[in-house]
Write a structure and sequence with these properties.
By secondary structure, the protein is an alpha/beta fold. It has 23 helices and 19 strands. The strands form 5 sheets. It has a 5-stranded antiparallel β-sheet, sandwiched between helices.
């Protein structure tokens, strides 16, 4: 309650209880400082009888009005009777001596109160309120808090004549204030504890992050090291398997064994790549590299590879396209192919009877600059139990009967889902145990800026050389097996090859041999491939030489460092001969010489000019059966039928050998033409 409100209460009380004279006097009260009101209040009180005074003073409530003189001991001249309600002592107790009031102030507060009053009294022109809260001891032993509002009254000469003021109980307010202070203190302590906890937690999280980063780095280094160690022997396995497979006089059983070796090596390489891809995805380092590619070519390649796998297992494979034909699109061809081959590979693996279908749907609902494409991979395999559907996209989570799972790490679907999502698409699955599954991939593929040229992959089996002057290639590798493999691969298609087993030898050979292209291993003792490349680039004879890095370490960092050192390209190990041929063609501008296809229809004329008779085909029913198998892409069945026909019709053996060569090379178009040209 402020000063104006208290004066208003006094005015209201006087107006109700006083006579008309007192009321008239009260109306003249100014709402200025309390010292200015004192005289008017005294006049009003004097106009009332003693009974009315008592009623007035008690009606004011807990406010105790007092006045004392500025003489020795500050004797109290007046105090309202309701002081007894405040302190428990009657007014007479205080009128006897100022010392009595001071005695009721606790010893802890008295010096401060007296000092404040003295300071206030000694301040010139101090006519305004002095306000100080302090404690008072009640007669019942309790201690209360009071607010003391006092003003000095001065005489004509400026001397202090007396003090006038009032008291009221603020115990509850102080208690609330103290409680609030305690709460503030508790809150401050809680904040401090929270800040400390946050700091502690931040330190813990930082330490945990550092530990996680260190663990991730250690995992990456371990995987990179293991990948390198596994790829190095795989380079020899797959390289020589590719070399042996092209030998024309390789016995049938040996050829089958080479095929098994190559397939097993490719499978191991796929597992290694899956583990590395998953590590990249988990670390957020898998980057898409979109480019303009012809969409039909991707689907045709995926379908061709899947058809061969399906036929080898004896199940049907169908590729369908629904909707408008697509031209060139902008997409990461490698990752899209990886997704489709993974899903189709799983479908074929888990299908024993029936077939697998790749259905490409183009609903035409895309925006003007993109195509909405949906791929459905449908199989009639073992299906997936409902309780396993929620876990099939988790790493290492293979669903279904363990006996039917076959080879694999359980990473394929997890990687597929993450790649699809990174491409901005979605993947869903529906399955019924015993009836098969349908995986659906939905993507939005941006349209290419222009028509993308089709790039038919080079066929290693048919390349026999290259046109033009001979180009010397230098191989730099500290592993003698790798050097031997490079030499045989390159020499088989007409390249002169020189080899160096270390960095210093490579620098000397480069100066003396002036090779057109250098295949540079990066990890070597002494001078590594990076340093050798940098030094070669500083030599006049090495500035324009094409340098292609080749390493079993295939991280993005390795590729970047090789390019920064001055390499023109990067070939990962194990070497895929098709990729090697493409790199040689790209950097040296080569035109390849291919083996001539076997003659179709009439045989070529022998030396001497005499025409020979056409090769006799097998009987018409056998040819019709072969045509049906070839049109359906059943290579394994074709090879079995060729063996049967050779045994039953020896006269048709030359014709069968020609057809068998086409089937083994998966030259299905040429095979169908040969079969259909046979007389029926």
């Amino acid at each position: 309650m402020d000063q104006a409100e208290r004066i208003h209460r006094i005015t209201a009380a006087l107006g109700r209880l006083a006579n008309e004279e007192a009321a008239d006097l009260i109306e003249d009260i100014d709402e200025g400082p309390l010292g200015g009101v004192e005289r008017e209040i005294n006049r009003a009180i004097a106009a009332l009888d003693s009974r009315l005074q008592e009623r007035l003073l008690f009606s004011v409530g807990p406010v105790v009005v007092f006045r004392w003189r500025n003489t020795e001991g500050w004797p109290v001249e007046y105090v309202t009777p309701n002081v007894v309600d405040l302190t428990g002592y009657p007014a007479e107790e205080y009128l006897s001596s100022a010392r009595v009031y001071a005695a009721h102030i606790p010893a802890d507060d008295l010096p401060r109160v007296m000092s404040e009053v003295q300071t206030y009294s000694n301040t010139p022109a101090s006519n305004w309120f002095w306000h100080e809260p302090y404690r008072l001891k009640r007669s019942d032993g309790r201690t209360i808090w009071v607010a003391d509002y006092t003003v000095i009254r001065r005489g004509p000469g400026g001397e202090i004549t007396h003090y006038f003021g009032y008291l009221f109980d603020i115990t509850e307010r102080v208690a609330q204030s103290q409680k609030l202070e305690r709460l503030h203190a508790e809150l401050a302590a809680a904040n401090e504890r929270l800040e400390q906890q946050v700091q502690d937690r931040t330190r813990q999280l930082k330490a945990a992050k550092e530990a996680a980063d260190a663990a991730s780095q250690a995992k990456s280094e371990f995987l990179a090291s293991m990948s390198h160690e596994l790829r190095t022997p795989l380079n020899g396995i797959l390289g020589y398997a590719q070399l042996l497979a092209r030998l024309p006089d390789l016995p049938e059983k040996a050829r089958e064994g080479v095929g098994v070796i190559h397939k097993s090596g490719e499978h191991l390489l796929t597992l290694i790549n899956d583990v590395l891809d998953l590590a990249k995805i988990e670390a957020g380092r898998l980057e898409l590299v979109p480019r303009d590619v012809p969409f039909p070519e991707i689907i045709q390649m995926v379908a061709s590879l899947s058809r061969v796998r399906a036929e080898q297992k004896g199940v049907a494979f169908t590729s369908e396209h629904v909707g408008p034909a697509l031209g060139a699109v902008r997409v990461d061809e490698k990752r899209l192919t990886q997704v489709l081959l993974n899903l189709l590979g799983n479908a074929i693996k888990f299908t024993a009877r029936g077939g697998v279908t790749l259905r490409t749907l183009v609903p035409g609902g895309g925006r003007g600059d993109e195509h909405a494409v949906r791929f459905e991979i449908r199989d009639t395999g073992i299906g997936i139990a409902p309780e396993h559907l929620a876990h099939i996209f988790e790493p290492f989570g293979q669903a279904g009967d363990p006996r039917a799972r076959g080879e694999g790490t359980g990473l394929g679907l997890s990687i597929t889902k993450k790649i699809v999502e990174q491409m901005g698409g979605s993947i869903e699955v529906e399955s019924e145990p015993g009836r098969g599954s349908v995986f659906t991939v939905a993507l939005r593929l941006p349209k290419a800026a222009g028509a993308a040229a089709a790039s038919a992959p080079l066929t290693w089996e048919t390349v026999t050389g290259y046109e033009g002057a001979r180009r010397t290639i230098m191989v730099v590798d500290d592993n003698p097996h790798n050097r031997a493999l490079w030499r045989e691969l390159l020499a088989s298609i007409g390249f002169p090859v020189v080899a160096a087993g270390g960095g210093r030898e490579a620098l000397a050979l480069a100066e003396s041999e002036r090779p057109a292209l250098i295949l540079m291993d990066l990890t070597m003792p002494g001078l590594d491939g990076y340093e050798v490349t940098r030094r070669l680039r500083r030599l006049p004879e090495g500035a324009q030489t094409v340098i292609v890095a080749s390493s079993a370490s295939i991280s993005d960092e390795t590729k970047r460092k090789s390019l920064d050192a001055g390499c023109d390209d990067f070939l990962p190990k194990p070497v895929q001969v098709g990729a090697l041929l493409e790199a040689l063609q790209r950097h040296l501008g080569l035109s390849w010489v291919h083996r001539e296809a076997p003659p179709q229809g009439p045989a070529a004329s022998p030396p001497g000019g005499a025409a020979s008779a056409p090769l006799p085909p097998p009987p018409a029913p056998d040819v019709a059966l072969l045509v049906d198998l070839a049109q359906r892409g059943r290579v394994r069945n074709l090879l079995k039928e060729f063996e049967r026909i050779e045994a039953e019709h020896p006269q048709a053996r030359p014709w069968v050998e020609r057809a068998r060569a086409l089937a083994r090379g998966f030259q299905m178009k040429e095979l169908c033409e040969l079969l259909q040209s046979a007389p029926t």
